Amino acid sequence: MLGELLQNGSVLEIVATFVALGLVIAAILSLIYIIVGGISFILSAGNEEKIKKAVNTIRFSIIGLVVAFVAFFAVSFIANLLGIPFELSFSTIIDLMSEIFSALQ
């Protein structure tokens, strides 16, 4: 999908695909950091400094995910406001995720 898009796609389609790719990467990294923060929290053994570090890891990963989605909606809103045909569908995101996961296997 990405190779075909880069060869035959318009600039708007390429930008939309890379925005979707950014959202997928942000969601995956956020999930990983939430899991790491949770494991750190469990393994902190009551140490206040380790607990604070684990909670901050979880907090900042959630904040990062929210910022990524707010940025996506801001780009979509500004594109609609300026009349730019910026279309990013859920199926594009699913296609990207399936292509990424198939490449990892």
Please tell me about this protein's structure.
It contains four helices and no strands. With 105 residues, it is mainly alpha-helical. The protein is elongated.
Computed CA radius of gyration, to the nearest angstrom: 18 Å
For this structure, the quaternary state is: single chain
Number of strand segments: 0
The major pleated sheet works out as: none
Strand-pairing-aware structural class = mainly alpha
Shape designation: elongated
Mean pLDDT: 85
Number of separate structural domains = 1
Roughly what percent helix?
over 70%
**Separation, N- and C-terminal Cα atoms:** 17 Å
Q: Helix-strand pattern, N to C?
A: HHHH
Portion in beta strands? under 5%
Unreliable runs: none
Number of DSSP helical runs: 4
Give the secondary structure arrangement, pairings included:
Blueprint: H1 2-8, H2 11-42, H3 48-82, H4 90-104
Brief description of this entry?
This protein is mostly helical and 105 residues long. The protein has helices spanning 2-8, 11-42, 48-82, 90-104.
Which key phrases capture this entry?
elongated, mainly alpha, 105 residues
